[in-house]
Structure formats: structure tokens, C-alpha cells
Amino acid sequence: MKEIAVDSNVLISAFLEEEKRHDEATKFIEGLRLREYLFHISMLVPVEVCGALLRRTKSLARAYLAKREIEGLTDEGYAKLYPLDKERMAKAEEIALRDGLKGHDAVIAEVAEELEVALLSFDKEILRRFKGKKQ
Amino acid sequence: MWEKIALGWETFKTALGKLKSALGGKKAKISRRELEIPVPGGRSIKYSEKVTEAPITEGIMTLVNAGAETILTSPITAEGMSKVLAQAGAKELEEPKVRSEKTKQREDTEKLMKTPQVEALPEKENLLFRLFALIAHGDESFNSNAFPESDRAYREAYEFAQRLHDKPLQAICLNLIGAAMQKKPEDMLSLFDEAIKLKPDYAEAWYNKGVTLRELGQHKEALVCYDEVIKLEPDYPEAWNNKGAILCDELGQIEEAILCFDKALELRPTLPEAWGSKGAALSKLGQYEKAIPFYDEAIKHDPDDALSWYNKGLTLAALERQEDAAPYFDEAIKLQPDYAEAWHGKGLVLVELERYEKAITCFDEAIKLKPDYPQAWHNKGVALSKLERYEEAITCFDEAIKLKPDLAEAWYSKGLALGALGRDEEALAYFDETIELEPDYAEAWNNKGAILCDQFGQIEEAILCFDKALELTPTLIEPWIGKGVALSKLGQVEEAKTNFQKAFSLREKMPEERVKALDYLTQLILKQGLEAITLQNMKGAEERALELAQLKKEAEKDDMAQVLDKEVSQFREGLSKEELKSFGEFDVVFTVLSIEDPLERWKALARKISEKWPKGLSAVEAIRKERQ
Asked: What gap in Å lies between CA B471 and CA A71, rounded to an integer?
């Protein structure tokens, strides 16, 4: 089983049928169910996904259901959640300063670096700047 | 009434030996069977052990000695006797010319009596011979339905018995007169009483008295007679059977009755009545499947017994095998065209098969045969109600009530018909009267509740009625629905849902009733779901959606999912523009959460999200904007 830190854009892509990398994202979700992967995600991720979905679709039901699905992944052990505590904040600051990442991006990347796993993101900007392991 | 037992020569010789011993003053015990001599038509002349002590035994021996083997191999008939006499040296009787059978028999008997051999017999034997010939003639006449002739012959035989001063034989003749008598039970009874007076240990007369008393509706008195028979002759299967029939049919002592039927069958496994009676007892206990083989045995042993065909029909109907039941009623009717109950039974089956017009014809036939048949009137009314001919139905119910004022079903059915005509107050009165007559009438409680709730707005009282109906019959679907509706009206939605859910779970019930429960339940869940969405209570919406999904799953098991879908569509149609928007949201939750497989559910959600996602906006871009 491969462990990876996942960015919000991957999950959003898995929810958008017309997204360029939708199939790829869906494959990761399928891989989770097959225990090929284990996702490590910052607590910022579900918040960002739900917020983005609610604002873009203007549908509370859809956003709520997405939140429910992500919670399902963590509840069933397919994904692990990491709260942003003081220690992680310090580490994220270090990464932001080191790699020139934006604050939110650094928080997402921190999980990868902390756990020494690859970061899975569809955002080329993050991948270009982040010095840690990348999927 | 009489049984036919073929005697073998050896058996009779043994009996004869015992008779001789009896005459020798030893008073040997001779069982009933050993002294039965068969005559045509399944009847027989019987001599109980007490008779063996009487002078009649001498006569038997005289006859036997005159041509015993012939007598034994052919029953005692005029013809048989002429053979006996021929063997004893009598001349052949003249060949009869063209005459009716009845006249021929009578003439033969008379000729036989006048033969020199008979006339040469000593007086007592001569009288005995004549007496036997008359009984034989009476039997033949009886069996060819010439009842006045059989009556005349038996009465003449009785005169001979009187001349012989032989009380047991007089009793036998009186018993025969009574047993052969047609449709005059009171007169029959006095003959049996007289026979019993002459011979108090005469089981046959007790038995016939029992049969007659039962015909007169004096069941307890009849039971005393059968007990007396059993005391006198414990191996008398018919008496056991008839005792059981009274215990079962009149006194409701079914378990005890079954013991009697078992005893009868142990004594005579070929007794059709006992098979049929046991079947009927098992049916009364609700053991319909177990009852069927007993009716089959009864039919096997007596295929002409309309009652067994009828009872099997009723039992199959009780098992809801209406199509199978119908031919049994047909057969009963074929065997006995004036069998009003069989016509009624067929009518009932046809009602169940929803062939109401034909059912009405059957009930009419039953009523024609038996105008004072309240159940037939009632069920004709039921069939008319099914055809929505309520006014005509009410006339029938009135007739049933007139004939049997305590027929609760008729009051109830009239209440239903009145309700259907919108005459609610009258209907309520009829349901009240039904309950007065039969406080355990669950359906009447239910319908009273329905009228109180739907027409008079007396919700609390209605709930009490539904509760009573459910206390009496928890498997009745309507009160669950009615109570659900009443609770909804009181705003007790969760309790209402529990009641509808219960109604829907009663799978053995009629689909239309379950559809009603499903409709109500779906409506309530949709209302709650819509309300939750409107209040942005997503947890509540999720719960309702899951509830609805579960309900749909249950409905799918019974191919009723389309009912739920239809209800959802109808619900949607009744919504305002604003409500429709919220309902669309609930529909998304319901649609997605109806899918159990997590990946499929994810994909379904993805489809729903994609429908609303702005065109051209990528996931990366969206998140980037979130992070700005």
C-alpha cells in the first residue's frame, strides 16, 4: 500500500466529471478502496473541498454529500486526517519560507514532509516549488 | 345407520355353535358382529347378545337348518329365502310376468309365505319366517326408495313380533319402522322410545334416538343417547363419530371430539363420516392443511358424500386456494343439487375470485333453496357491495339482519355500505351495533375509528378505536394506517410513520393496502426531508433520505418501488416553485444516498456536482481561488 499526502484539487477533480484529470483522480479513489493507497490529508483539505463545492455549485446538498464522502474515507481508515497544531504550523512556516509556497500550500505539503511520503497535487505551481517528495 | 358385514360360513358356524350353547342354557356371550346378517343395500338384521336368550334364536336356527349355506351366501331376501325353500324341497316360484319391481317383491314375499313348506312349519317358526321375509321386503323397498311400502312391511313384521310376544324382536321392528321413517323425526322419536322401553339395552334404538334428537336440535339429549350406546356397545364406531360431531359442532369441545373420531376410526377405518368429521374438527382448529387428507379419505370411502366434498371446498377456501376449492363445491352440488350450503360456499369462493356476478347467482340459488339463510343474504350483499350496488346490498343486509338479528357481520357490512354512500352517521350507528353484538369485531372498531377520524374530526376517540382494533387483531393492516393518519393529523409525525411502517411490513396483506401505507409513509418522509432542506438541516435531510432509500429497498423486494417513485413524482407536482428548488436538493441527497456501493455513490455524486459546476473552471483553479 502506498501512502501519499493529497491536495484538495485531487479530491475536487475526482468530483468533476469534465475535469481533465478526473479519471486519474478517480483511479486514486478506487485505489483507496482496494487498499493500494492510504491518503494523508491535512484538515484544511475537507474544508477547502466543501467550501469550493458550495460556492461553485451553490448547492448545500452537494457540498454536504462531498463532506460526507470524505468523512467516510477517514472513518473507514482509507485516509488519515491531520489537524493543524502549533508544531505543524511551525513546520509549514519553515516550508513556506524554504520553498516559497503560499501559506495554504505549505500546510498541505507539510503533511507529506512530516510523514516522509509523496505529495499528490494537480497544481503545477505547488509541485514546481515544493522540494519534498512528489507523486 | 345399519352396517353391512359379510359373514363367512366359518364365522357363522361359530356363531351358530354359540347360539346352540345359549339355547342350552349356558348364556354364551355373542358379539353383535357375529349375529349380523346382511341384506341388500348395505343394511342388515342385527341380533345383540340379549336376543340370543330369546326364543327368536330357535327360529334363526330353524331357518339356518333349512338351508343354512344358502342363507349365508346370499342375504335374506325373498329371493334368497325361495332358494332356501327350494333346497328344502319347495317348488320353484312362478316366473313373474311384467310387473313393477315393488309389486314383484311384494308378490314374491306373499307367495313365499304361502308355500307349503312355510305353512308346514310349526306356528312359531312360521311366524318367524314370515317376519323375516317382511323385514327383508321392507329393506328392499326402503333401498328402492319405496318408503310407504317399507313402512308397511316393517309394521306388519312388528305385528308378527307382537304375536310372538318377543319383546326384543318387537324393539327391532319398531327401530326399523323409526329408522325408515321419512321426515317425521317426532314420530320416529316415539318409536325409538318405545323400542328402548321394550328393550332398554338396545343400542341401535338408542343410537337412532340420538340421531333423531340431533335432527331436532336437541344436542345434549342426543349426546346422552350416544353415551348410552357406547356404554352398551363400546365398539360402535358410528356412536363414537356422532358423539364427536356433537362435541365438535355444538359444544365446541374440539379436542375431545377428535378423540371420539379417532376411536371411531380405530374401530372402523373405513367409516367415511369419521374421516370427514375429523377433517372438520381440524379445520375448526385452523389446521386446514392437516384436515385435507382426512377429507380425501372420507371421499375415497364414500365418493357420493356431498358433505365431504363441501368441507374440503371450505378448507381449501380457508387456505386461500379458491381456484382449487371451486370444483369441490361443484361436485357437492352435482351430488346434491339442493345443497344450499354448497351453493353458498361456491358463492364465497367466487367473491374471493372477484367473480361477483356469478357469486350473486350462487347466493341466489342458496336463498331459493333456503330462503331463511341469513349468511347467504349477507354474502349476496357483500358481492353487491363489491359491485358498488350499495342500495341493493343494503336490502340484502336488512334481510340477513331480519332473519338473524345477532348476525354481527350483516350489521358491519351494512355500515360499510352506508359509509360508501356517504351516510356516515348511520354507518357509525351500524358499527356501534356490530361492536355491541360482538365486542371483539376488530374491523368494526377500525371502521368506527376511520369515520370518527375522517368525517367527524374526533381524532383522539378514533385513535382509541384503532388501538382497540389492533389489540384484537395486530395483523390487521387498516388500523395501523388509520392510526398513522390520525397521528399525522395531530402532528405526531414520527409516531405516524411507525404505524405506516408497521402496516407496510405486513407482507401477507393485500397489496393495495400496503400501497396505501407506502404512499402515506413516503409522503411524510418527503415532507420531513423538504422541511429539513428548507431549514438547511442537512443532517435531518440525510436521515430522511436514508429512511426513504431504505423504504424503497423494502418496496423493491415486493416489486413496489414504482409505487414509491410515483408518490415522489406526485409530491413534486404539488410543490410551489420555491419548494421545488429545495425539493431538488433533497432529491440529490436521496438519489446519492440510495446507492450503497461507495464507489458508485461517489460517481453518482460526481455527476450531480458536475451538473452544477461552472463550465471551464478547473479544480486546480477553484482551489487556488479558495487559497487567495
From this structure: 45
